[in-house]
Each structure stands twice: as C-alpha cells, then as structure tokens.
Amino acid sequence: MPAAVRYVAPVETKRHPLLAVAQEERRKRKQSYETALEYYEGDYDRQLLVDEEGLEPDYNVGINMVKLTADRTVSFLYPQMPVFEIDPTSPEKTDEETWVENFFKANGGLSMMHKMAQRGFLSGHVFCRMRANERIYQGEVYPTLSVLDPTSVSVYWKADDVAEVMWYEQRYLVGGNAVIEDHIRSDDGLSWTTRKFVQHAVSQEEIMQQQTSHGTPADLSWQQIYYEQGGWTEEENDNNHPYWIPPIIEWSHLPHPNDYYGQLEFDHKDLLDTINRLWSEISRIVHIHSDPKDVVTGTSPDEVEDGGSILAIDNPAARVQRLTLGQGALSEALDTVQKLTETFLALSRVVLLKGEAKDLQRVTNASVRTLFLDAIAKNSLLQYNYGDGLSRIGELAIKMGKLPNKAKTLPITPKFAEPLPVDMTELANVAAIMNQMRAWSLRTIREKTGVEPSFEAANIEEESEAALEMTARETEAATPAEPKEDTPVDKNSK
Length: 494
Fold this sequence. Notes:
Strands 4, 5, 6, 7, 8 and 9 form a 6-stranded antiparallel beta sheet that branches. Strands 3-2-10 form a 3-stranded antiparallel beta sheet. The chain has a two-stranded antiparallel ribbon with strand order 1-15. Among the domains are: 14-147 and 248-288 and 326-421, no CATH class; 423-460, no CATH class. The chain has helices at residues 15-40, 65-77, 95-106, 109-123, 204-208, 269-289, 327-348, 365-371, 373-400, 424-436, 442-448, 453-478, and strands at 83-85, 125-137, 140-147, 153-158, 161-174, 177-185, 192-199, 233-235, 240-241, 248-252, 293-297, 304-307, 310-313, 319-323, 413-415. By secondary structure, the protein is an alpha+beta fold.
C-alpha cells in the first residue's frame, strides 16, 4: 500500500492515485489467494493434454498437497479451543474468562478459528471485524465477530512509520451499490471513526461479471469488487468506535521479510505442478503397460492364430517376445516423485510419520517432539501471531460487551492445547515434581491434562463427601451393639 501523511477521503481527488495503487496491490493479493484456494479445493492445472474427443483416457493425477498441508497446519494450531486466561492468580475460571469463552462460542467457536487459520494459510493475512451486540448464546448477547475476505481490506499506514496504521479501507457491495468503508484512527490513537462512501447505480450486469474469491458478488454480501474511481458520495452514519483497538483486527499468518501483509504458505506452485506431472506420467505408463503386448517376428500376421492366451504359429522360425514395463525406470520415477514430495512437505514444515502407532509405544514425549521439531517451530510462531490477534479480539469484545466489572479486565492470554499425543504417566510424574517445587499450580496441571478445573473440583468434592458418608455407614455397621442393662422390676406394681 502507498504510505500517507494524512487521511484522504475517496471524494477528494488526492485519494484517486491511492485508490489506483490500492487496487493493483489488492489485485495481486487476490490472484495469489484465488490460486491457492483453487488448489486447496482440488482444481489443479492439468499437466498432460486431454483428448477432447474422449478417445484416450485422461491420465492426469492431482495430489492435493495444499489441502493436506493446510489442514494439518490448522489442526496442529487448533487441536481444540484455546483456554483464555485473564486472571492467572485465580485458581478457578473467572467470570471474565467464562464470558470471553462464550463470546467465541457465540461466533462459531473452533470452526470459526479454523476458518481464520485456513484463510491465513492461503492468503498470508487474517482480517476480522467487530460489530455491535448481535449474537445470542445461552440467553446472553455478545458482539459479532466476522472473518473477512482477506482481499477486501487494504491498510494505509503513516509515511514515516509502517507500524502506525492510519486507516483501513474495506470494499463490498450492497445490491447495485459499491461501498467503501474507511475506519480512521484518531490523532491520539485512542478511538476510531468509520466513514461510509457509496457509488450508486452500478449495473447488475457489471456486478455479475466481477469474479471474487468465493464466486460472484451475488453469492455473498462481503465481497471485493474492482470498480472505477470517482462518483463517490458520503452517507451519514453514527459509527464511532471509542476504543484504541480498531474495529478491523488483522495479523500476519507468517511474517513476510519485505511486506506489511503476511506470507501465504502456498508459494511453491511450480513444485506441486512437477509432482502432479510425474504422477500423471506414471499413471499413463502403468495404464499402457498393464495390458502386455506380444511382438511376433519372422512371420506374417496371417500365420498367427490367437487362441485366447495361446498364440499358434506355423512358421518354426517365428519368434514371440512380450513387452513388459521395466521395473528400473518405474522405480526411478517413484523415487523422484517421493523426494519431491518430501521437499514440498519440508518447505511447508509439515511432518508425516512413517510406520505405525506401535512403533512409538516406548518413545518418550521428548522424542516425539524431536520428530516434529520443524512443525513445532512453525506452530510456535503461529501461536504467537494468532494468540495476539485473539487477545485483541477478546479484549475488544469485553469493552464492547455488557460484562460487569469490565474495567478491571487484565490482558487476555490464549493458551493453546498441545497438538501432539502425550504419555499421561510421564506427564503426571512431571506435574507432581513441578507442583512439589511450587512451579505449577493445580489449575495449570489440570489445564495441561485437558480437564476442566471447576468441573473436576466440584466432582472431587462431591466424591469426597460421598466417600466420607460411605465410610461412616460402614463403620457404624461394623461396630457391635452394646448390651442393654436389665430394667429393675417394681414389686409393688401390678
């Protein structure tokens, strides 16, 4: 994006050069994102020519490595919903922590977080928007969180400081009207203002011709569209945002060494095309040689009688030779495609273990983590980036929501679940040592073992009370009854 010295509205002529540069920058991001999305959905470039008349089989093979690496990366980041910690001194969940957890559940929970990471993987950047209270969950109202099309938002930053965002530009369509919403940072950085500009009377035919990342604009309301500059009018709106966290919350999936926007993970398309080309060639070779051919020399075809699996030839000088696929050539092709596949996985830092689960029966937790070292290193960076984004979203949700004592809220720390299987015996021994050293609290131990602290505490207390009652009854039943004293008889009574 071009740097700016001050905010310039779309109705000002000085904004037009910025809009042109923004459109070109967004076009490049859109092209990269759509290519990655097509490969993720299995729409690959065919590497071998296809007989349009259908006389020859289609030998093209597409291995969906993009979906494999994307889904494994996302699942590694989000094996389950993160735990949101606000008050680390509290042994149990606080009201704020429960409220933040319910806020994310109200907006899609784990499914929504997976969508964030999928779009981040394919585009390199994540854009979300927070709006006023609209979501209802378990009878309570929560703010609305939307995961935006990553190509529908552009960032304008200050000329002398790329880290200082001046405003966000969001484009979308409403019916036949093209809309620009600018979310502008105040001079003191403590609030944001939204200005809405509309370009009316965009023909429906023109709109339907605009292809977006997820179909035509008629399919979804939040879409990017490229339209001509000029002709903008500002609409009145009362949409001030009195918080330092902007209504558009964005972060990089992975950092890019020379760009504000993050780095998408599918940036080795040529390598995947080569892998699919080799698999397609192997498919063609295997198909052709799956039906062996016999070559007869020293005679004419009329002298060969085909008796099913037997060839009868009158000429004793004739020779028959069967053409078979050379195993050496096929083996070399398979080795090559295997090495290229391993290279693709290494570039994506995704680990595919060879062998079976029984091979890891006596492997320690440290050994398992060593095997996944590259994936863990990438996941740590993703946890940092996505954790920062989720923290800002949660903090803004509390400020916008109707949570009591929200002024006392501390910074939110998302805690991601361990993606790798853990030997519980080893973890229990470590937890006992750490607790004895007073390095881990019981709450931390419960979270690391994947249990709900308040639920387990209530059940432990209930079980303890039940055990005490059972012990008391057993003690009473085992105690022999004391003999009763003889009651003296009154001789004068009748």
